[in-house]
Amino acid sequence: MITANGKAGDNKDGVGSEFLAFTLGSEEYGIDILKVQEIRGYEAVTRIANAPEFIKGVINLRGIIIPVVDMRIKFKLGTPVYDQFTVVIILNIGGRVMGMVVDSVSDVTTLMPDQVKAPPEMGSTFNSDYLIGLGTIDERMLILVDIDKLMSSSEMGLMDKMAA
């Protein structure tokens, strides 16, 4: 369970938390499944002039204009490739609907508290503020992203202006 301070693994009642697993490049990430509204195939977005590069643009989702972030660009993971596996994960975070482009989604995984480790200290070269921790399942490792913190950071405030 993710606690009020945003950290996983503090859950002592033995109940697991569910994460949607997705890939960016060769790494596998996970976000809290409760933040996911739907998953859609990638479709062209309408680019907004002067928007930061990681904000791909906006799409019309059943009459609602929502901003879309390309997570590969956001995390500086090389040039994104859009193919038949590329998807947009539609998120609902604090009443705001937004999309994030990822290379692919794989499954929903339940992690028990003892399967989630604190993120390693990386010094100033890497901002780990957006990480909940590392989830391990056998030989598989998920980088667990605190999507609330990431999508509510100051630079993401620009997305609200774009959708308006």
From TrEMBL:
It is found in: Cytoplasm. CDD domains: CheW (cd00732). The keyword Cytoplasm applies. GO terms for biological process: chemotaxis; signal transduction. The keyword Transmembrane does not apply. PROSITE patterns: CHEW. Residues 16-156 form the CheW-like domain. GO terms for cellular component: cytosol. SUPFAM superfamilies: CheW-like (SSF50341). InterPro entries: CheW, CheW-like_dom_sf, CheW-lke_dom. Keywords: Cytoplasm. PANTHER family: CHEMOTAXIS PROTEIN CHEW, CHEMOTAXIS SENSOR HISTIDINE KINASE-RELATED. This is Chemotaxis protein CheW. The lineage of its organism: Bacteria, Pseudomonadati, Pseudomonadota, Betaproteobacteria, Burkholderiales.
